[in-house]
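hiii, so i know i said id send this last week but things got crazy w the move. better late than never?? heres the sequnce for the chain we talked about at the cafe, plus the structure i predicted for it. fair warning i was half asleep when i ran it
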Amino acid sequence: MKKDLSQQFKEMKNEAKAEWNRHTDHNKQDHKKEEAKGNFEQVKGKAKEKYGELTNDPEKKMEGREEKARGEARETISEMKKDRY
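okay and structure toks below
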């Protein structure tokens, strides 16, 4: 009887470990995706901002700045998520 309980406990412990590993792996993948999206938004924003400067289009320039800021925010959030795991 004692061995059965001990064995059950070990199995439950292993299942919990496996679930935790699946959870953290999934969050690490999310972090990488978010970081890549943030970087892409920043590059796109910089390009729009430059285009706005070259064409003397203040709206396009502002769009670029906003998009760049969104990318920086997304990247910061991604780094915070990474630090959690």
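btw The first helix runs from residue 2 to 54. thought thatd interest u
miss u guys!!
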